Amino acid sequence: MAIDKIFAINDVLVRDEIVEIPFSCDLKKCKGACCTLDSEFGAPIRKEEVEEIEKVLPIVKNYLMQKNIDEIESREFYEIKDGEILINSINNKDCVFSYWENGIARCAIERAYFDGKIDYRKPISCHLFPIRVSDFGGDVLRYEKFSECAPALEKGKEENITIAEFCKDSLIRLYGEQWYNKLMNYTGK
Question: Does 151 lie in the same domain as 72?
Fold first, then answer.
């Protein structure tokens, strides 16, 4: 069994799986599973993102089904569990911000963003997926494996694209372009 290596880019620790594992979402096959995983809660969000989402919520609601709106209005869109802020889910499955389009779960926040209605794209943890950020006195990036993402591994191999390349926009959003360039230089890409 191989042990993952960890390297540092500035103050961020990165597990080598981020730069080695091929990955490219295949929504036609996974159907947006990351928005509908069986779980009491959805994605983690940062404190400052709660305020961002609260600002755009009236617009985002226009993209949601009534059951999602009812859930948000009755329970809020997030909950704090063990000190972590997590997006609520409906029936321990669908993220409260998910909607369905042609049989694929999608993000209403991101839809409003791409429609030019809001400036906030979506929670960084969702944008980074399948990368998860753990805090061990600083950020540690790791690959969160889900069987539902098997098609993304296949598509990543076909396209010759790694998790780091697939998550370029979100990594730049979080750490900046210079950081991302250092990451890619580290890997020789």
Answer: no
- Do residues 90 and 71 lie in contact, with contact meaning Cβ atoms separated by under 8 Å? yes
- 141 and 108 in a single domain? The answer is no
Nearest to 13 by CA among 142, 129, 126: 142
Query: 181 vs 5, 7, 16, 98, CA distance in Å?
Result: 20, 15, 16, 32
Over its C-alpha atoms, the chain yields an Rg (Å, rounded) of 17
Task: Count CA atoms within 13 Å of residue 14 on its CB side.
Answer: 24
Q: CA 19, 169, 28 angle in degrees (round to 5)?
A: 85
* Domain contains 19: yes
pLDDT given at position 1: 43
6, 21, 176, 26: CA torsion to nearest 10: -150
Which of 120, 141, 167 marks a domain boundary?
120
Give 85-133 pLDDT, tens digit per residue.
999 998 888 899 999 999 999 999 999 999 999 999 999 999 999 999 9
CB 16 within 8 A of CB 7: yes
pLDDT digits (tens, 9 = 90+) for 51-63: 999 999 999 999 9
For the record, the structure tokens of 113 come out as 């963003």
